Amino acid sequence: MTRSRIAVSLLAVLFPLAASLAAGQTDPKAQEAMPADCPMHAAHMAAAGKGAEAQAPHDHAAGVDRRGDREMGFSHAATNHHFILSADGGEIRVDATDAADLASRDQIRGHLAGIAKSFAAGDFHSPMFIHDRIPPGVPVLEKLGDAVAYTFEETDRGGRVVLRTTNAQALSAIHEFLRFQIEDHRTGDPLAVAVD
């Protein structure tokens, strides 16, 4: 086989694969066309890995939203999440975007009332599931237990969980936890402690 025929054959194999990777799809035909004994297999797989890494932030955010909707029982698209840092702790606040959306309001209230009870019992499985990892601050909050008070309060459109402590180590952990939530939920809330 001549070099030009090899080049054309190689392009015929690689072009469908490159197109499917660029589109973020996996084309079974393109995968079949690229056998593992291809001399460029390692390079192709490395290039495919770089494409996956470029997608990782978007995929993580979509995963947080998807798992959050499932765990919380309401849609992130129909609600507003806020995480506020205060001098003695902070708060997790969720409200229905539409004042007439009583279903979301009630689902928020049920979820946040349960979160306050779970956190008070040292159970942080919900944020671990939603974020697919242990959020910063959680190990300290689990260890310190009673050093933090978790209180649920209703709001007009939903509710909030207020976190309060007089323990410096717990306060630092609360702030770490809330800053992580702000960033991972992409709320745009201030990362600094709110001034009264």
Provide an overview of this structure.
By secondary structure, the chain is α+β, with helices and mostly antiparallel strands. It contains seven helices and four strands. The protein has a four-stranded antiparallel β-sheet with strand order 1-2-4-3, with helices on one face. Strand 3 and strand 4 (158-165) form a beta hairpin. Helix 3 packs antiparallel against helix 5 and helix 6 (138-144) runs antiparallel to helix 7 (168-185). The longest helix has 32 residues, at 41-72. It is globular and about 40 Å long.
Itemize the secondary structure elements and their pairings.
Blueprint: H1 3-22, H2 28-32, H3 41-72, E1 79-86, E2 89-96, H4 102-120, H5 125-131, H6 138-144, E3 148-154, E4 158-165, H7 168-185
Antiparallel strand pairs: 1-2, 2-4, 3-4
Helix pairs in contact: 3-5, 6-7
Number of helices: 7
Q: What is the string of helix and strand elements?
A: HHHEEHHHEEH
Helix content: 55-70%
Principal-axis shape: globular
Unreliable stretches (pLDDT < 50, length at least 5) are 1-55
Note the gap between the termini: 78 Å
Strand content: 15-25%
| Radius of gyration (Å) | 24 Å
Structural class category: alpha+beta
Main beta-sheet annotation? 4 strands, antiparallel
Report the count of strand segments: 4
Largest sheet, spatial ordering of strands = 1-2-4-3
Mean pLDDT equals 74
In short:
With 196 residues, the chain is of the alpha+beta class. Helices cover 55% and strands 16% of the residues. The chain has a four-stranded antiparallel beta sheet with strand order 1-2-4-3, covered by helices on one side.
